[in-house]
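Sample intake sheet
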Amino acid sequence: MSDTPRARALGKELRSARAESGLTMRQVGSLIGCSEAKVSRLETARRRLSPPTVRAFLDALDVRGGERDRLLRMAHDIDRTAWWESGGGLPAQLTELADAESRAVRITELSEVLIPGLLQIPEYSRALFAATEVEPQHRDRLVAARLARQQILNEPEPVRYLVLLDEAALRRAVGGRLVMADQLRAVLKTARLPNVTLQVMPFSLGAHTGLDGPFLLLEFERSKPLVHLEQRRCGAFLDAPEDVTPFQRARSTLCRTAMSPARSADLVAAYADAYEREEDTGDGRREALAEVELQR
């Protein structure tokens, strides 16, 4: 199978490795016994990247050690059907996002008003899909896809995940107080993973660069980074350096100005406690959540 997202990703990796080696496509072709045109087709996934072919390619570039093992694993997995490729009518932009997340080594997510999808529990997701008018017959499939995406956080070599979360996302009780309490407990549990970092931008920070809008920054072993932007049910990827750099700068700024991971966890826990204590009346809600402000 050629010209799949996995094949294109591997082709880009091979092209980057060749560029680092200083060899031209013609020189690589001479070393592996093929034409310059075939090397070009391999690097653009227009020719099947079988494990033997990739092994010969890596031999020509003298790629050794862990990098060689990683690229050969990609070659062996290239024809394996991923969950997002197995049908089910998922939106194309969602399957492209899932593929990119599965290949990333580092993900940064900024969210202003919602708990990010990689951290959502099913009840929160369902309430969100209902509120945003997703048709009932599609909700279970989208919830299942969201849960499947979260598995990247628990792989043997998991992605490093940085969550930059505005306090407004903690305050908005999607699904009601009990769902929100469970959701925040789940956020705390995930934030304890060694590959996950959570930092909150508190209301006391006032205006901050994250108010420009949510984003997902995906970084890879060799391929250039991507930014994914989503609005309602449409998504777009940015990969031009001049487009990605502002988001990298925003990450650096927010990491300096947001609360530390320890203080962020304390604030999330305080909100979870408040949702569990609040009564079902509007007045009870205001009193319980107001205590969060007083405790800081």
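Comment: The beta strands are 106-111, 160-166, 196-201, 215-219, 226-231, 234-238. Residues 111 and 214 are 5 Å apart (CA to CA).
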